[in-house]
Structures are given as structure tokens and as C-alpha cells.
Amino acid sequence: MSASGPDAAESKVPGSRLTIYILVAIVFAIGLALGAPHTAMRFQVGGEIFLRLLMMMVVPLVVASVMSGIIGLGDVRKLGRPGLAAVTYYAATTFLAVMLGIIVVNLVEPGVGVVDPAQLETLSGERVAELEQAGPDSLGEILENLLLMLFTRNLFLSAAEANLLPLILFSIVFAGMLTTMGTRVTAITGMIVQVNDALLNFILLLMKLAPLGIFCLVTARFGEARAEGIFVETLGQTGWYFLTVLVGLAFHANVTLCLIYWMFTRKNPFRFMAQMSQAILTAFSTASSSATLPITMESAVVNAGISKKSVEFVLPVGATINMDGTALYEAVAAIFIAQAVGLELTLAQQGVVAVTATLAAIGAAGIPEAGLVTMVIVLNAVGLPPEYIGLILSVDWLLDRFRTAVNTFGDSVGAAVVEKAFH
């Protein structure tokens, strides 16, 4: 599969049609959910099947693509510059997202006058305990967990649990070692590249099911929200908070990331966004950057024309640790909750929120609503009880989809930016 030549040219036409089909599927799905929520909920099985098909591909694709990317470098010593560029990009964009979120929430002040003690009861004690148990308790534990996440006692267990960081580390080291062994490992390196090509072709086949799978996913989730009375009603209760997060996410995607893309590539960022639309819409539908990874990689290579070396090296890592949208959301949510309960955070405390939200976002898994788990850490950092998450819980499932779409777009911009470091 190549980004150039007749094959790529032919694939772009059905690719643009697929984007339209996915967009139409989302519109019809929301329409069905609003009009017949109980009927919409019956499509949950179809959505779950599609999500499992995507998740099934994640582990083998990550291992094969990272190894193939390293092998394609030809000399493992060339990895230093792209690796430094990728880490710098991840850290810079995540921190910019957090700072943007803090600025927007302070300007809009969506939490002022919103507090309603009855709303805090929407989050049960059991749910609070579940969130607290799911994540670390302090900033120090976040750093310790991030370090330990790089290593595993059992690669097969990590693969079974879709724990990607140790798999990525192993793949980089193992493939790097292979590049130093010359002709002795030609059969192994050839097999790895062939497996990667086969997996990418399987994704092309899977993408033909994307409109149907996305329709099932979206209509079932929105139908459930509508049936429970938390769709339109809760938007009215937390409308300013919801709008503040969306404004922040929209600015980060359409201004910050697009400006970074233009500065490094001198290409039209909005055309690039259109080329990545399949991945962005799929991310919105699945609310999982990890599940979307196969389609993100396919779109980046075939539609956007980014080199396979950069895509295979940058995107698997980005889907795991580059969470711009999540970082922005956590900063906005923490300050919104403080405003809602009448606690005025000092500049120093907001700085703590910025640092904690950045690290918590990096430690968040690429799964639906992982940000809720790390949100407990951010609240603890500034002395806010986790029960206050009840103020934002009712709309979190919907915001999760928007921030995942931003995460995915941020990953793809990173692949385009880091591509320059391979030359």
C-alpha cells in the first residue's frame, strides 16, 4: 500500500465517498435516536461488533507497524531525531491545549451561579469509589505509573489487555536490534513488513463496514441518552460548560493544530483535515483513539500522503500518550467545578491544574471516558472532593467523543510534522 502511484489515486475516490457515507450515517443515527430512542438502542449489538473488530486489529497492527517503521529506517541510529521531534510535539501540543482550556474557562466562567446541591447526588458513592479505585491518588503515583507502564512482566498478557506502551517499547528495541544484524535476519524483517502490509489491506476491507458500524454505535448511545432523559435536558443544565469545552476544542483543532501543521509543512491544514475526516468521524463515533488507530493510519498514508515511516512510528505512540483534547477538558472541568462550588483558585493552583491535567492526560488510556478516571487526580490536586464530578457526569459521554476526535486529529498532525525529521 503506497501513498503514491495509480493505486493511491484510485483509492482516494472511494475514500471521499466513504467519508460522506460515514457523515450521513451519523446524521441518520442521531435522528433515529431522537425520534425512536428504544428502537435505536437495539442497534447496540451491531455497534459492539464493529468496535470489537477495530480493537481486534489494534495490538497486531501496533506491533507490526512500529517494527516495520523502524526496519524501514535502515539504520537504528536515525531514530534519535524523529523520536525527539515526536516527544517534543506531544509535550508542546498537550501543554498548549491545557493553557487554552484554562484561558477559555476563566474568560467564560461557566460555573458561576450553577451549583445545585441536588446535582451532586447524581454521582453515587459507589461510582466515586469506582473512579478513585481505577486511578492513582497523586501526581507522584502518576509519574511512577507512567514509568512502570513502559515495562511488563509478560508481553502476551499486555497484548491481551491491549496495554500498548510496553508493546511499543519492545517493538522499537527489537526492530532496532534487527537493523543491526544485516542479512542474517532478512527472512524475519521481510515477514514483518509483509504482515504489516497484509494488516493494512485487511483494514481497507474493514473500512467498507465503517458506515454501518458507526451508525449502530452512534444511534445506540444517543438513543440510550435520549431514553434516560439526559440528552437535551442536561445540555440545558450544563450548557455553558458544554459550550466552553467545545469552544476550546474547536480553537485547538482549527487554530493551534492547523497553524502548527502549516508552519511545518506549508500545506493547507483544512484540506489535510478533510483528508483525515474518516479517522476524525470514526473517533467521534467510537470515543476511542486506540480503536480508531487502524483507520487513522490508513487515512494518513492513503488519503493524506504521509510517509509510512512517520505514520508507523508516530501514530501508535500518539494514540497512547498524545491526548490534547483530554488535557484541555480536564483543565476546563476542574476550574468549572471550582467556580460552581464558589472556590476561587489562585494562579498557583491553576498552575497545578495545568501540570496535573497534562500528566493525567498522558496517563489516560485510549478508551471511552478514560478522562473521568484521571479527573479524580486533578480534583484531588486542588482539594476538590471527587463527588463534584457529578456536575459534569451527565454530558461527559458526549464531550468524550469530541475530545477523542481532537486527540486523533492531533496525532495525525504529529505524523505530518515529524515526517520532516526523517529526511
Number of DSSP E strands = 0
Judging from the principal axes of the Cα atoms, what is the shape?
globular
Topology order in helix (H) and strand (E) letters: HHHHHHHHHHHHHHHHHHHH
Q: What separation lies between the terminal Cα atoms?
A: 21 Å
Radius of gyration, rounded? Answer: 21 Å
The portion of residues forming beta strands comes to under 5%
CATH class value: Mainly Alpha
Largest sheet composition: none
The CATH homologous superfamily is named Sodium:dicarboxylate symporter
Uncertain residue segments: 1-14, 119-124
Written account of the structure:
Helix content is 77%, strand content 0%. α17 packs across α19. It has one domain: Proton glutamate symport protein, CATH 1.10.3860. The protein is built from 20 helices and no strands. With 423 residues, the chain is mainly α. Residues 1-14 and 119-124 have low confidence and may be disordered.
Question: Tags for this entry?
Answer:
globular, mainly alpha, 423 residues, Proton glutamate symport protein
List the helices and strands and how they pair.
Blueprint lengths: L5 H30 L1 H5 L2 H30 L6 H29 L16 H10 L4 H10 L6 H6 L3 H15 L7 H22 L2 H18 L4 H6 L1 H27 L3 H7 L1 H10 L2 H15 L4 H14 L2 H17 L6 H17 L6 H12 L11 H26 L5
Helix pairs in contact: 1-10, 1-14, 3-8, 3-9, 3-10, 3-15, 3-16, 4-12, 4-16, 4-17, 4-18, 4-20, 6-18, 9-15, 12-17, 12-20, 14-15, 14-20, 15-16, 15-20, 16-20, 17-18, 17-19, 17-20, 18-19
In short:
With 423 residues, the protein is an all-alpha fold. The chain is 77% helix and 0% strand.
